[in-house]
Model the fold of this input.
Amino acid sequence: MTIDKSLRIRRGLSRTRNVLNRAERIERLKSADRWREGDSPLGLAKVRVFQLALKKKKKKAAADEDAEGEPTDAPAS
Done:
């Protein structure tokens, strides 16, 4: 049986995961110099996951249009 197109995930996971797998945690611990070779992979230290918040872009073109009365990207006559 096939999956309906509306139920498929198009781009994979589009949001930030809040849990890392063991290999990702070890990689972050190594970059922070908190991991040494020979340490046990069980009982790993906590690793903070940073979530990026994207700011919305301001509409500069709309503000310029109101100030000048004509859009900035229009060709000049």
Remarks:
- The radius of gyration is 24 Å.
- The chain is about 25% helix and 0% strand.
- The first helix runs from residue 22 to 31.
- Residues 27 and 33 are 10 Å apart (CA to CA).
